[in-house]
Amino acid sequence: MDLHINGRSHSVAPEWRDESLLQVLREYLGLVGTKLGCGQGQCGACTVLLDGTAVRSCLLPVASVGALPVTTVEGLAATDGRLHPLQQAWLDHQVPQCGYCQAGQLMCAAGLLRRAPRPKPEEIDAAMGGNLCRCGTQHRIRQTLKAFAKEGA
């Protein structure tokens, strides 16, 4: 089985086909930026982009991905190591606290910005509402996204 992750093709052994995309990313491919939070698709820590749409990778059987491109938090940055403008905004606005949920938050935000490059505050709230943060950084995340959308970065 072949997967297209972060612009590269990866062959995955057949015995992994019944695993979740999250397990394959972390355990088989070593892409550990995507986190396991609740394992039930409720917290958003495992969010990745599947063909540009934010999805919970803990719920997605890897066999169902097919040829659709997957983007993880590792794939947001440029190949030369420069941060994606959204990642830079996260740092500029000092969003992370413990950081555990941030990969999922970033991927959800990236999916939103692909759909709506200048989202309204209510679109931001709706898109980000399913991503939990135990440290309470939701306000900084929303403020950063509002500033990012306003600046048109």
**The CATH homologous superfamily of the largest domain:** Beta-grasp domain
**Please, what is the average pLDDT?**
94
Radius of gyration, whole Å: 15 Å
Q: Under the CATH scheme, which class of the largest domain?
A: Alpha Beta
User: Number of helical runs?
Assistant: 5
The portion of residues forming beta strands comes to 5-15%
Shape: globular
Strand order of the largest sheet: 2-1-5-3-4
Give the fraction of residues assigned to helices. Answer: 25-40%
CATH architectural grouping of the largest domain:
Roll
Distance between the ends? 37 Å
Biggest sheet character:
5 strands, mixed
What is the chain-wise order of helices and strands? Answer: EEHEEEHHHH
**Category by helix and strand content:** alpha+beta
Pfam family, one: Fer2_2
Protein name: (2Fe-2S)-binding protein
Keywords: 2Fe-2S, Iron, Iron-sulfur, Metal-binding, Oxidoreductase
InterPro entries: 2Fe-2S-bd, 2Fe-2S-bd_dom_sf, 2Fe-2S_ferredoxin-like_sf, 2Fe-2S_ferredoxin-type, 2Fe2S_fd_BS, Beta-grasp_dom_sf, Diverse_Oxidoreductases
Fold blueprint:
Layout: E1 2-5, E2 8-11, H1 21-28, E3 47-50, E4 53-56, E5 69-71, H2 85-92, H3 102-115, H4 121-128, H5 138-151
Parallel strand pairs: 1-5
Antiparallel strand pairs: 1-2, 3-4, 3-5
Helix pairs in contact: 3-4, 4-5
Folded structure, characterized:
The protein is of the alpha+beta class and 153 residues long. It folds into 2 domains: 2-75, Roll (Ubiquitin-like (UB roll)), CATH 3.10.20.30; 85-151, [2Fe-2S]-binding domain (DNA polymerase, domain 1, Orthogonal Bundle), CATH 1.10.150.120. The protein contains 5 helices and 5 strands. It has helices at 21-28, 85-92, 102-115, 121-128, 138-151, and strands at 2-5, 8-11, 47-50, 53-56, 69-71. It has a 5-stranded mixed β-sheet with strand order 2-1-5-3-4, with helices on one face. A hairpin with a 2-residue loop joins β3 and β4 (53-56). α4 (121-128) packs across α5. The longest helix is centred in the C-terminal third of the chain and has 14 residues, at 102-115. The N and C termini lie far apart (37 Å). The relative contact order is 0.16. The model has no long low-confidence stretch (mean pLDDT 94). InterPro entries: 2Fe-2S-bd, 2Fe-2S-bd_dom_sf, 2Fe-2S_ferredoxin-like_sf, 2Fe-2S_ferredoxin-type, 2Fe2S_fd_BS, Beta-grasp_dom_sf, Diverse_Oxidoreductases. Keywords: 2Fe-2S, Iron, Iron-sulfur, Metal-binding, Oxidoreductase.
